[in-house]
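User: Predict structure, ligand uracil.
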Amino acid sequence: MPIRLDQFIANSSELSRKDAKRAIGRKRVSVDGEIVTSPNVKIPDTSRVILDGKPLSLPSELYLMLHKPSGYVSATRDGEHPTVLDLLPAELARRTGLHIAGRLDMDTSGLLLLTTDGQWSHRITSPRHDCRKVYRVGLDRPLDTTAHQTLENGLMLEGEDKPTLPASVHKLEDRLVELTIGEGRYHQVKRMMAAVGNHVTGLHRQRVGAIGLDSGLKPGQFRPLTQEEIDSV
Ligand code: URA
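Assistant: Predicted complex:
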């Protein structure tokens, strides 16, 4: 993946981005053996970057699972409400490029994945990869057979021109179902239920692909993903 030179240095040394720019301007930095004086230049993240004679290496990518409590916004910044990054220690929350792989609404709880690896998160969020997400959905009233079938077949959401991909629905209790979908459109579960005349009263994500929410994590807690979980995506 290409990365700006000043960003590379800020991520791999003690220097701030501003100090990195200054060091580049003062010819203290070489890339693959050549002195580079422009901080804006994009280089492959595998480049050999040397600052003051010392080779720099980027830290490895970060992959986390968080048990998101409701009441937190899936964003890196919000003027009004706490964000999921407030649940992480500062040194992780400020890692460059850390982003959410598939947001949850503020009132939704459950499995949230965060990573610095853009290609990995793309495989989770792109409908092309059909990464299945499993939700436990509380409902206003029981689903009848027609609604159940409509959800499974795929339906048209208001304001959209393509039907949802086939989903699967398992009844857990009268007003509680497990819904599995392969996409992550805006408010998708709530809008699917609204499209069949129902209303979501509670939403919790249990699984993303082969990664299940660790039952040892209390709401607000997180842990790094295992190598097996990372490789499963
Ligand atoms: N669908 C929704 O409507 N909300 C979420 O948070 C996740 C999926």
